[in-house]
Amino acid sequence: MYEILTGPMIWLSLSVFVIGMAVRAVLYIRGLNWQLDRVAYRAHPKAGMKGAARSIFYWLLPFGTRSWQKQPVMTVIFFVFHIGAICVPLFLFAHNMILKDMMGISFPFTLNLCLADILSWAVIVCAIFLILRRISLPEVRIMTTTYDYFIIFLAVAPFVTGLFARYQVGDDPFWYTMHLLCGELFLLLAPFTKMSHIILFFMSRAQLGMDFGIKRGGLKGSNVTW
Fold first, then answer.
1. Gap between the Cα atoms of 219 and 167, Å rounded
2. In sequence order, which residues have a C-beta less than 8 Å from that of residue 146 and are 6 or more positions away?
3. Which of 41, 44, 104, 148 sits between 20 and 30 A of 32, alpha carbons compared?
4. Do the Cβ atoms of 141 and 134 come closer than 8 Å?
5. Measured between alpha carbons, how far is 126 from 91 in angstroms, rounded to an integer?
6. Structural domains in the chain?
7. Tens of pLDDT along 15-71?
8. Dihedral of the CA atoms 214, 215, 220, 225 (nearest 10)?
9. Closest to 84 (Cα-Cα) out of 48, 132, 40, 117
10. What is the pLDDT of residue 217?
11. 105: Cβ contacts below 8 Å, ≥ 6 apart
């Protein structure tokens, strides 16, 4: 089992993740309809790209938008969760060694174990707060289904099993195997679930930014009529 997970399954899961996300991005772009959206995407590329870049930049900036500023606690939880969820898988030294063995490449910067531990625990704590938020707030609870809890579990399981393996809790080979299994399951399912927001966040923010950059005041005062 361990040999399969560290061999063909890594290649399969990475391939499904990369290709799946690329397909989701292409389908999103192909689904745009300037007549339905009433946004002349191709007619005003400069204004559109400027609006897209501005939208993505400010939504990636903590407290960079009015929505982030109105919910400071949720903003901190959101950004801490995502910083840990991105940095640990990408920059953990052990992960980079696997990447180097597979493809001969690795990131020049890697996390030391102490910082990786802190970020991993932060992801888990923030996930607990996200679950409590879904349970406690009526406006969120009414929109929450079992599927939403599954998505949180899917995102957090690699961190929980990784910490168990890191601290050598119980049976070491078991937790290493579970860590690999959870990580690869995440990669396999991400393009087909809400985790596809890994790429679709940028697509949707770019679309909205183009909308505002071209139509909603972006070209105000020009000869463009709507």
1. 57
2. none
3. 148
4. yes
5. 20
6. 2-30+66-212 (1.20.950.20)
7. 999 999 999 999 998 888 777 767 777 777 788 888 889 999 999 999 988 889 999
8. 110
9. 117
10. 65
11. 99
Query: What is the model's pLDDT at position 33?
Result: 78
Report phi then psi at 82, rounded to 5. -75, -30
Q: How far apart are CA 27 and CA 41, in angstroms?
A: 16
| DSSP string for residues in the chain | -HHHHTTHHHHHHHHHHHHHHHHHHHHHHHT--HHHHT--TTT-HHHHHHHHHHHHHHHSSTT-SHHHHH-HHHHHHHHHHHHHHHHHHHHBHHHHHHHHHHHS---S--B-HHHHHHHHHHHHHHHHHHHHHHHH-HHHHTT--HHHHHHHHHHHHHHHHHHHHHTT-S-HHHHHHHHHHHHHHHHHHGGGSGGGHHHHHHHHHHHHHHIIIIITTTTTTSS---
pLDDT in tens, 82-129: 999 999 999 998 888 888 887 787 788 889 889 999 999 999 999 999
Query: Are the beta carbons of 108 and 17 closer than 8 angstroms?
Result: no
The pTM of this model reads 0.88
Phi-psi sector, 71: left (phi>0), alpha (psi -120 to 50), beta: beta
Phi, psi for 223 (deg, rounded to 5): -90, 10
Taking residue 138's Cβ as centre, other Cβ atoms within 10 Å add up to 7
What is the pLDDT at residue 101? 81
Between these two residues, 40 and 209, which has the higher pLDDT value?
A: 209
Neighbours of 173 (CB within 10 A): 10
